[in-house]
Design the sequence.
């Protein structure tokens, strides 16, 4: 069962929140962070993308960069741009995209739950990315950014969420660039805090939706700190890490599409003919065409869109992995026909989040940068949970969650 606890959040005063808050560290480049933080000394990018505090071209892995993150975190607190709450709270965080609002409870999740599998993952992590975030957590002694969890819908938690969502907000703003609305409330009532803690204790599993590397780094640093303290009780702050937990039914997963540089020596006609072995291929013309159901793909090639429907027998709907369109396309298109065997490392393929739309796929092909594009039907949260429950790992680049969590609304100190 899931263990969560409230915490004394470190967060900006209301008048500073829109200057402090930022996009997550891993969704933008150093150059983009530098541009977004230009002229804003309060931007959280000075802490989560601290390479911007140095000359352009400075490596984000330079030891001075990590030290700068620590120095800026301390400075933000000294100047009152970030202040720590005096009591343990939970928090409610709402995001609104295209008229749809999802509500997440901001909690501290247990490191032990991550290590023993109560917190379930569906993606592999890379050691170099884990180590980068671990260094950042170690030197700042904080979880600067939350991870993104899902939990099975629960009526008791729905009631708590509805209660606070009806109250005046602590923060309420429209984020630049994406234009999505973000709202935030403090849950300080002791009875409500106890209800949240006790209700999560009845939930068998939490699921990492987004933030696998942050989860791993936070848990591993917490475990390190516990190991170094012979008198650890298990109650210390480092035994927990910050997460925003959303009811699974509320989450929006967008398609995560592919663009490829070449056809592995084939002409367009040869490629289309080769596809017919495993797919029913239909020409859909020049207007953008989106997959309509599971096991249908949209191919853009030489100015035309094609529907590709996987033939029966090419997939296994009873296998949590075999049912996935990312698995079908990886096996039957990228590996079998195009010779792309490792989606994580092959330089001939790139990935485009569904928020950019089919127009971005078309643009990249029409520009000559890419030869073809493949649009996939989105993965569902139920599929993700089934895979996590089975102990299996999804193929790479399978999910794209929107909206992304904003960073800087609340921070969790480890000591």
Sequence:
């Amino acid at each position: 069962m899931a263990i969560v606890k409230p915490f004394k959040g470190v967060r900006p005063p209301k008048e500073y929140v829109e200057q402090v808050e930022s996009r997550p560290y891993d969704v933008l480049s150093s150059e983009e962070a530098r541009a977004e933080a230009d002229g804003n000394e309060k931007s959280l990018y000075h802490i989560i993308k601290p390479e911007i505090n140095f000359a352009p071209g400075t490596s984000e892995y330079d030891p001075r960069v990590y030290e700068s993150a620590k120095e800026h975190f301390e400075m933000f607190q000294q100047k009152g741009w970030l202040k720590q709450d005096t009591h343990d709270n939970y928090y409610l965080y709402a995001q609104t995209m295209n008229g749809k609002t999802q509500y997440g409870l901001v909690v501290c999740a247990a490191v032990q739950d991550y290590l023993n599998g109560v917190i379930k993952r569906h993606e592999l992590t890379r050691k170099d990315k884990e180590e980068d975030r671990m260094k950042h957590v170690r030197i700042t002694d904080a979880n600067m950014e939350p991870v993104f969890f899902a939990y099975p819908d629960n009526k008791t938690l729905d009631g708590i969420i509805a209660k606070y969502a009806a109250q005046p907000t602590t923060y309420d703003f429209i984020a630049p660039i994406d234009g999505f609305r973000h709202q935030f409330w403090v849950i300080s009532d002791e009875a409500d805090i106890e209800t949240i803690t006790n209700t999560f204790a009845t939930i068998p599993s939490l699921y990492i939706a987004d933030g696998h590397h942050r989860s791993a780094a936070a848990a591993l640093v917490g475990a390190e700190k516990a190991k170094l303290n012979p008198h650890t009780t298990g109650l210390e702050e480092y035994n927990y890490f910050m997460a925003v937990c959303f009811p699974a039914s509320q989450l929006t997963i967008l398609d995560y599409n592919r663009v490829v540089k070449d056809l592995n020596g084939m002409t367009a006609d040869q490629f289309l003919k080769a596809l017919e072995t495993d797919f029913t291929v239909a020409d859909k013309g020049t207007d953008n065409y989106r997959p309509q159901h599971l096991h249908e793909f949209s191919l853009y090639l030489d100015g035309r869109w094609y529907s590709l429907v996987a033939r029966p027998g090419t997939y296994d709907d009873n296998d949590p992995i075999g049912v996935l369109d990312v698995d079908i396309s990886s096996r039957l298109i990228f590996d079998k026909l195009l010779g792309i065997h490792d989606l994580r490392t092959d330089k001939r393929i790139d990935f485009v989040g569904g928020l950019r739309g089919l127009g971005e796929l078309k643009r990249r092909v029409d520009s000559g940068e890419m030869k073809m594009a493949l649009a996939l039907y989105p993965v569902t949260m139920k599929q993700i949970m089934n895979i996590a429950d089975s102990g299996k790992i999804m193929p790479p680049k399978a999910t794209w969650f929107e909206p992304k969590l904003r960073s800087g609304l609340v921070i969790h100190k480890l000591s």
